[in-house]
Write a structure and sequence with these properties.
Shape: elongated
CATH class of the largest domain: Mainly Alpha
Strand content: 5-15%
Low-confidence stretches: none
Largest sheet: 3 strands, antiparallel
CATH superfamily of the largest domain: Winged helix-like DNA-binding domain superfamily/Winged helix DNA-binding domain
Order of helices and strands: HEHHEEHHH
Radius of gyration: 19 Å
Distance between the termini: 35 Å
Oligomer: single chain
Strand order of the largest sheet: 1-3-2
Mean pLDDT: 90
Length: about 130
């Protein structure tokens, strides 16, 4: 899906999408029950979020009997890429390097995370043909 087709979603809508991405197609009642308990949202709030996500094209639904079954229409990866790009544009003038430096200086990284970053950077260096 092209970036232009990936909708911008709010923080609350992210909660709905994470649930649907994680648990697959879900009946509306299951979404309402899970998110109402987890976030102390009213069932009406959850249904409003579901409707917004359908209008935005992030979720689709199918009527099965008397139930609405919701499924993701966009991948988590596509939404993460869109949000990352938007964040970099707003906060770091579109540049990833200052963002990476900021996080390295101000956030705790486990040894495993550091090794993964090192591996990614080494791979990028190799693609450019540098030792």
């Amino acid at each position: 899906m092209a970036k232009a087709n990936v909708p911008q979603i709010s923080d609350a809508e992210w909660e709905v999408m994470k649930l649907v991405w994680g648990r697959g197609p879900l009946v509306a009642a299951d979404v309402v029950e899970s998110l109402a308990a987890q976030n102390r949202w009213s069932p009406r709030t959850v249904k409003t979020l579901l409707n917004r996500l359908v209008r935005k094209g992030a979720l689709g639904y199918q009527v099965v009997g008397r139930h609405y079954v919701y499924r993701a229409q966009v991948t988590r990866d596509a939404c993460v890429r869109r949000e990352s790009s938007s964040f970099l544009s707003r906060v770091f003038n579109g540049s990833a390097a200052p963002a990476l430096v900021h996080f390295l200086e101000h956030e705790y990284l486990s040894p495993e995370e550091i090794e993964r970053m090192r591996s990614i950077l080494d791979g990028a260096r190799e693609q450019e043909g540098r030792p």
